[in-house]
Design brief:
InterPro entries: ClpP/crotonase-like_dom_sf, Enoyl-CoA_hyd/isom_CS, Enoyl-CoA_hydra/iso, Enoyl-CoA_hydra_C. This is enoyl-CoA hydratase. It catalyses: a (3S)-3-hydroxyacyl-CoA = a (2E)-enoyl-CoA + H2O; a 4-saturated-(3S)-3-hydroxyacyl-CoA = a (3E)-enoyl-CoA + H2O. By secondary structure, the chain is α/β, with parallel strands linked by helices. It folds into two domains: 193 residues, 2-enoyl-CoA Hydratase, Chain A, domain 1; 49 residues, Lyase 2-enoyl-coa Hydratase, Chain  A, domain 2, CATH 1.10.12. Helix content is 45%, strand content 16%. The chain contains twelve helices and ten strands. A hairpin with a 2-residue loop joins β1 and β2. α6 crosses α7. The chain is globular, with a radius of gyration of 19 Å.
């Protein structure tokens, strides 16, 4: 089955997903979310893919959820449908690393989707925001929670209460994005980074991602204990033996992904 609202490619060991609703600035309609979920399912099942890049256009990563699609819904509609839940969290359950390559607007649901990814590389023209307050509602897919964890309460509160947008430089200073690159280098940089990750030991990459994510869900002492147990478990892998042997022998490791 094909995709209506996204473009899907395989670049060596990297899966590339491009949001593709240009006339709507990649607004996140139900069909797009369904397409995205199916693409991620396929990439998770593909042993040749070790990492994923999610991007949009130079003008907009995603300008938010589709307002036309939700404007006529009432409380019982959204409550009984569990609106902006089904499918929206698929990114957060993907075990393989996902990099958001963001140019242009990442607003509302678009900002939330970017924050669900493992890290964000931003183009120089990127703008982030949770402007839902200006249309009489609030973020509904983690905006008040993830943004606060990334940039702190004061900045997140101001953005959610005023709808103010954050440019790429402020986003980098605040810890929302890992780094900024020129717009014309954004996709190539993200793909290069994803390929670097995909070229490492698959199980060790998954363990590292799991440990970092654990830090947001537990106390420091419990997180360190969890990390240490996972660290110990790496010594049961063939790749730990190969990696350390290669280091000692001054050669490149040959990963078995086991």
């Amino acid at each position: 089955m094909g995709y209506e609202y996204i473009l899907v490619e395989k670049k060596e060991s990297v899966g590339l997903i491009t949001l593709n609703r240009p006339k709507a600035l990649n607004a996140l309609c139900a069909g797009l979310i369904d397409d995205l979920g199916r693409a991620l399912d396929d990439m998770e099942a593909d042993d040749d893919i070790g990492a994923v890049v999610l991007t949009g256009s130079e003008k907009a990563f995603a300008a938010g959820a589709d307002i036309k699609e939700m404007s006529e819904k009432d409380f019982m509609d959204v409550y009984l449908q569990d609106f902006i839940t089904k499918g929206w969290e698929r990114i957060t359950t993907c075990r393989k690393p996902i990099i958001a390559a963001v140019a242009g607007y990442a607003l509302g649901g678009g900002c939330e989707v970017a924050m669900m990814c493992d890290f964000i590389i931003a183009g120089e023209n990127a703008k982030f925001g949770q402007p839902e307050i200006t249309i009489g509602t609030i973020p509904g897919s983690g905006g008040t929670q993830r943004l606060t964890r990334f940039v702190g309460k004061s900045k997140a509160m101001e953005m959610c209460l005023t709808g103010r947008l954050m440019d790429a430089e402020e986003a980098e200073r605040s810890g929302l994005v890992s780094r900024i690159v020129p717009n014309d280098e954004l996709l190539s940089d993200a793909l290069k980074t994803a390929q670097q990750i995909a070229g490492l030991s698959r199980p060790i990459v998954l363990m590292a991602k799991e440990c970092v994510n654990r830090s947001y869900e537990t106390t420091l002492s419990e997180g360190v204990r969890y990390e240490r147990r996972v660290f110990h478990s790496t010594f049961a892998t063939e790749d730990q033996k190969e990696g350390m042997a290669a280091f000692a022998e001054k050669r490149q490791p040959k990963w078995k992904n086991r």
